[in-house]
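Extended Data, panel c. Modelled sequence:
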Amino acid sequence: MSADARKDSHRPLRHASTWKKYGFAWVTGLFFLVSLLGHWWLAWNAYASEQEMHGELPRLADYLTEVGRDTLENWQSEFLQLIWQVAGLALLLNVGSPQSREEDDRLEEKIDAILRAVSPEQADRLIAELDDRFDRGHPSA
């Protein structure tokens, strides 16, 4: 390992700002907010035009009831299904579906192979230390 590489390996990791760390969530939230406000604004215009055609004044309470119902119907048919697909997938991968455990085992084998290639004389000792420290991800017998 070169001197520069050793020096770089001891530098503390910089933590990303909250804006950068959760950038995808911020953009998704912004898209959601803009689409929701756009939906409500367009719904208000349609409701007000309809009330005007009937010679009535638009009433906020009636509008909120109508747009609330429409919004929840959209969420039920679109957003909740998509949210479950994304959240369910994330949950199953993080909790430990069989597929994610296979991926973890595969990743561990790759790391073991890299350690053996980089430092063959110390690889078995390092792998044993890591296995002891992290219990190989399996409960102790």
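The chain has a mean pLDDT of 81. This feature is highlighted in the accompanying rendering.
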